[in-house]
Amino acid sequence: MKSNGTNSNGRSIGISGSVLLGAAFLMATSAIGPGFLTQTAVFTNKLKAAFGFAILASVLIDVVVQLNIWRILGVSGMRGQDVANRVLPGLGYFLAFAVAMGGLVFNVGNVAGAAMGLNVICGVPMTPGAIISAGIAIALFLSKEMGRAMDNFTKVLGILMIALVLFVAVKTHPPIGLALKETILPSTIDWLTVLTLVGGTVGGYITFAGAHRIIDAGITGQEHIGEISRGSINAIGITALMRYLLFLAILGVVAAGKQLDPNNPPASAFLLGAGNLGYRFFGVVLWSAAVTSVVGASYTSISFLKTLFKSIESNQRYWIIGFITVSALIFTTIGKPVKLLILAGAVNGLILPLSLISMLLAAHRKDVVGDYKHPMLLTIFGYVMVVFTGWMGISSLSKIADLFR
To answer: What sections of the protein cross the membrane (predicted)?
Structure first.
């Protein structure tokens, strides 16, 4: 159903706003997975307060990427793979399979993270924890209104994660003044860290999660460009808020001279900063981050395939359920496939520059966006991001060699 936002009683506007907020949380919680938590802890431990600048720089880059992709897809009403195929026949198929395969492998890690979260919260063994978590995710897609169920689920858990991390940040008493100073005027700048954060926030399927959600809800066309733009910025804002609060919480621990456990940096930070209660809170945050990433990865991976194969489009919910089931089966029977995660990470690094350049090339084609005029400044900055993320993606290919050493 296309929501035109013009209903006199405000009902359509309310529905659009709810969906856009849900899409923002879907994208944000897709980015906030187990890797997000570990990454933030490791970089905070390494760069201390100067990590604040890396967060700020990555957020600015993320906004450029997200605005470009959401606006172009939103105006065209076409999903990423269809736009890519329009620009270069066959490219959409490559992106779709790369996203789906990468999403499946990463989903195994997400299921593992959810299982670990339940283990921390209440001692549930890993295999039952994985099955329970997968079952909860599957239940969302069995709902008659699976879009609304997914929106509400990611909103609730997203807000819960932010609240719990805020609590721990208050408990650890971080040097806020120093953090703010280093965020603006850093003593150390590590651009590789910045690019790594970008890849983890808008890389692979993540930036398309929210954009595909608004297309499914029918919020498309130039008349919705303002809403779409705000939704894309809100998504990055939610992710940035979570990252910065987590940075402050961990910085408080590190600044006090305490040593993080290298085997599980974020868990040890919560334990050292807020005791056993903090450790339980970490379990809740980890489970919430992991299970919402399972939902986001599964939904978006299948959304990349459904317009290419009619059988998938007509049975979307069952393909998503199958995707989650296979992810859980791989984890419970094989475990986390470390080498596959490395390979998926390397391929994932190529998805963002390829998809972004496809969007930018399509932004000025009438057969894609009609009479829409994409801002030239966004286009220029977008191509700059293609170069940066392309370099990061090519660099990540070196990881493949490690598989055969």
So the answer is: 12-37, 49-70, 91-112, 118-141, 153-171, 191-211, 232-257, 277-305, 317-334, 340-363, 375-394
